[in-house]
Amino acid sequence: MSKDGGADVDDGRISKSLIGSIVATGSLSFIGILTETVMTVLFPELMREFRVDTSTVQWITTIYLVTVSVTIPMSSFLRRRYRLKSVFVAAVVFAMTGSAIMIVSHSFAMLIVARIIQGIGSGIATPLMMNIILEQSPRSKLGRLMGLGSLVITTAPAIGPTVGGAVASVLPWRAIFVIVLPIMALSLLLGLRCISQSGTTGDARFNGLQFLCITVSLVILIMALNQGGVAIGAAVAGRRDAGPAVVALVSLIVGVALLVCFVKISRRSFSPLLRIGLLEDPVVALHAFAYLILPMVGIGFGYLLTTLAQLSLGTDSFLAGVLVLPGTLIGAALAPLGGWLYDRFGASRPILISLGFAMVGAVLLLIFSGSLTPWRVAVFYGVFGVGYAVGMANVITSVMRDVPAEFTPDGTAIFNTLLQFGGAAGTALFSTIIGVAQTGSGPQGSASFRQATQMGGTWNFVLIVVMVALGWACLWRAFSIHARRTGHRVFTD
Asked: What is the pTM assigned to this prediction?
């Protein structure tokens, strides 16, 4: 056994305390990501209850993802400054507090506040789970354990709509958050018992200016995307309103400028919030770009398909959620297989072949977008979901081969930030495209409204195919560079 009580990296054994640590942090991450997408299937109901439109209600998911994406960069600082168990307790407290507020919320503003608090908890928990796996796992079992951890991240978003639809069909939507509270309490007890310290803490300092820059930058960039969609919708409807376009342009400029400032300040800081010099390595940078755009598709699909099912195909919330269940369950079953394939064959084959399979599902959805039925949605998404779950399970494991061990917390923080920000951007982008297509189409439920929603789905499927292809190409290039460094060929690493 290793001195940290986790795993012995020499004999390949996995201790019970390591399994308990992964289950505790993983269950908290799973619940956080689950509740992130549970709400997407409830959008039509929430729109009626709180009297908001499509572009407004999506902020329930978007603000959560943005909060997670701005919290995760702190995980590197937290890992260096505080003990793992203390960080875990803080994550549970935030998650439970946010869920409690969701239960008693009586206004849309309260929902937003609750989602922000929940996002902080999830933003702390997700990289904590990855750091424990990377730091305490036997090297010979790393792929399988990382596959298990990635399973939490890739499967929960797809299960969310199913859970949301099932619960909402028999109970008030607030019951979802009543159910998760005792589960989080159990994860707290398990974590207190099993999580052990790996490595030492240091005198890391929190840089408020860096945190402010990255936080405001990510929020404003999402706002730019949202307001850009509003501006396009106004133009399509023939309204002369330059306000949204001006806000979008200014937000884009300010957001990019703050992001540049964050990079420059971090490079000059003695104790940076996040050591982003890792991205100077082209292999890491290409993995990072792929890990930004692919989650836009993976997480955004939950919103897109459930919205199309309800507003275009006329299904109820339960059936809309069930449509993504087959692909999700099969993907969940096969995602650990992706980790085994990594341990057996390396990174390139499992990732590229699986994501190529996911591309087939996206192409089928595009080809049949004008004649989709619930059955076709379930089958085609199943093809995509299986390939996506197996392929994405290995991306972080793959890139960490090129990251020095002392920078592991920074690497996991960077990639989990990209994952969450990509999900936020994907949800905002897909909902914006749907909203633009629906502009001026008539009242919800009318034939013209359903047809407009279908057209918005077609536009989104075109974009999805392009994004998956671009992500695949980036990873192919990264593997090619890695192969030259090691003297191997792609598919033989």
From this structure: 0.70
Conformation bin of residue 12: beta by default, left when phi > 0, alpha when psi is -120 to 50: left
Helices then strands, counting H and E runs in the chain, come out as 19, 0
Helix (H) or strand (E) run with residue 87 in it: helix 84-104
Length of the chain measured in residues:
493
The 8-class DSSP code of residue 316 comes to -
**C-alpha span between 60 and 424 (Å, rounded):** 10
| Dihedral (CA of 263, 267, 271, 276) sign | positive
Amino acid identity for residue 194 in this structure: C
Say which residue, 14 or 381, is predicted with more confidence: 381
C-alpha 466/C-alpha 461 separation (Å) is: 9
Q: Can you tell me the distance from the alpha carbon of 358 to that of 390, in angstroms, rounded to the nearest whole number? A: 9
Is the Cβ–Cβ distance between 263 and 276 less than 8 Å?
Answer: yes
- Choice between 173 and 356, residue whose per-residue pLDDT is larger: 356
Encoding tokens for residue 140? 């010979």
Cα 481 versus chain centre, distance: 27
In order of 70, 231, 258, 359, the CA distances from 218 in angstroms are 7, 20, 9, 28
Per-residue pLDDT, 393: 72
Confidence of residue 341 (pLDDT cuts 50, 70, 90): confident
Q: Is 56 exposed, middle or buried (0-12, 13-18, 19+ CB in 10 A)?
A: middle
Q: Residues 89, 192: contact at Cβ < 8 Å?
A: yes
CB 424 within 8 A of CB 62: yes
pLDDT, residue 362, reads: 92
User: Can you tell me the mean pLDDT for 201-229?
Assistant: 76
pLDDT digits (tens, 9 = 90+) for 22-53: 888 888 888 887 777 677 677 778 888 888 87
Note the pLDDT of residue 150: 66
Q: Which residues pair with 196 in a beta bridge?
A: none
Give me the amino acid identity at 322: V
- Structure token digits, residue 159: 């299960």
Residue 148 and residue 336 in contact, taking contact as beta carbons nearer than 8 Å: yes
Task: Give the C-alpha distances (Å, rounded to integers) separating 121 from 64, 118, 367.
Answer: 10, 5, 40
pLDDT of residue 9: 43
Residues near 212 by Cβ (< 8 Å), separated by ≥ 6?
none
Contact 342, 479 (CB under 8 A): no
